[in-house]
Structure formats: structure tokens, C-alpha cells
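Contributing new records

If you add data, match the layout below exactly. Sequence lines come first and carry their own label; structure lines follow with theirs. Keep one chain per record. Anything else will be rejected by the validation script.
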Amino acid sequence: MCVAVPGEILSVDGDVATVDFFGNRMRVSLGLVDAKIGDHVLVHAGCAIEVMRREQAEELLVLLAELDEVLAPEREGRVR
């Protein structure tokens, strides 16, 4: 399953940004969006695909955490 994840832009160098995901920093292409430091972006396969409002990013993070809880037993080989 492929999932796009929101993160916050910490710095920008040309069309590449350093984005924070849960305390992890990754370099992300900004070639598809017009984003700046402090923006929240939805990232898929190393590319920012959408600029989001902070509230949208937070809501998506809550949903992803809930999905993680549901899928955890399957990843650990347990049956529900």
C-alpha cells in the first residue's frame, strides 16, 4: 500500500525542501507545488504533491495513527 504523508517544511534550497515527518527529516522535491518554509505538504514518493493547511495535516496524521492501530495486529502476525 502506498500512502502520502504530511510534513512541515523546515528549509528550502531551490526546488528541494527539508521536511519534518514525526521528527525525521527528509529531502523532498518541490517541483509540483509552490511551497515555502513553514508550509505543510503532502508527500508521496519523495515529491510534495499538495500544500495543506496545518489543520488538514493534523487531521490526516490522526487518521494515519488510527489506521496504524488497526493494522498492527496483522503486521505482527496476530489474528483479530
